[in-house]
Amino acid sequence: MSYLFKTRSEATQLKPASPEEQQQKIEDVRQLLGDLPTEMPSFLSDGTIRRFLWTKSWSTEQAAKALKEAVKWRRQFKPEKICWEDLPGIENEARRAYIPDYLDKNGHTVFVVMTSLKSFTSTKERIKQLVYNLENMAMDSEDAQEENVIWMCNFRGWTLSSTPLWETRESLHIIQNYYPGLIRTAILSNPPKIFESFWKMVKHIIEPTLQEKLKFVYSDNSESQRIMADMFDMDKLESAFGGRNTASLDIIKYAERMRRRDQLRGASKKNINDNISSPNQE
Fold it and tell me: Label partner for 200 (CA 20 to 30 A): which of 26, 212, 222, 268?
């Protein structure tokens, strides 16, 4: 599996537009969307439209088409309403996938996935949790002028049963079609030998632009260690990724932080109840 030791090149950068050109394209897309921005003003923000334009090489027609598909999905899934209390077994599941309280050295949001930790919920509920996290990362990326998320997966101890193929396919579909332009770099840490066969199955469903953002790193590889040290404060980075932080996730503090974020997103139970009791509230 020596090919995995090679870190991939940085994602091919799309030709940047000037701020004025970007804003004009955003307005052009908004015109193509008709009444949809009125229906979903929070989702169809400048930040969201900009992200879809990035991934469509600044084609307004393609971005508008992709956004319309995302709107259809959001009408059914209602991701903006998911809050911490909606996620069964979240105390355990959050340890498998969470947004830590540190950023990388360039100020990008970090998302951590511990694939080998056993899940006690269904695939459907894990997809729901993924969407919940994606909504939070999208909120963090609202004002970003480039991809803003460093996605880190620890594969030490991973087996084929850790990540069912259907779940992987569905997760990639949601990330690539409904939350494009979020991931700046995806770090796959310490994949075992058995991961090679799984990788061959899923590689073809990963879009080329996302494949270019993948970095395979190994704890016992000096080049991998250099990559991680260049990107992160090693005192904050989890030991699973070669950092010096051996503390486990404090689930009580994490729950408090996520509930505060739910309020900012307008997705907390309190906000929802307030809206129900005040139907005429703007």
Answer: 222
Question: Which of 69, 49, 70 lies closest to 60, judged by CA?
Answer: 49
DSSP secondary structure code for residue 157 in this structure: T
Whole-angstrom CA distances from 110 to 100, 228, 240, 275 are 6, 13, 14, 32
pLDDT tens digits for range 114-124? 998 989 999 99
Q: Over the stretch 195-210, which tens digit does the pLDDT of each residue have?
A: 988 999 999 999 999 9
Cβ 196 vs Cβ 1: under 8 Å: yes
Give the H or E element holding residue 168: helix 165-178
Nearest to 13 by CA among 141, 176, 184: 184
Q: Which of 81, 214, 127, 33 is nearest to 48 (CA)?
A: 33
Can you list the domains of the chain with their CATH numbers? 19-77 (1.10.8), 82-261 (3.40.525.10)
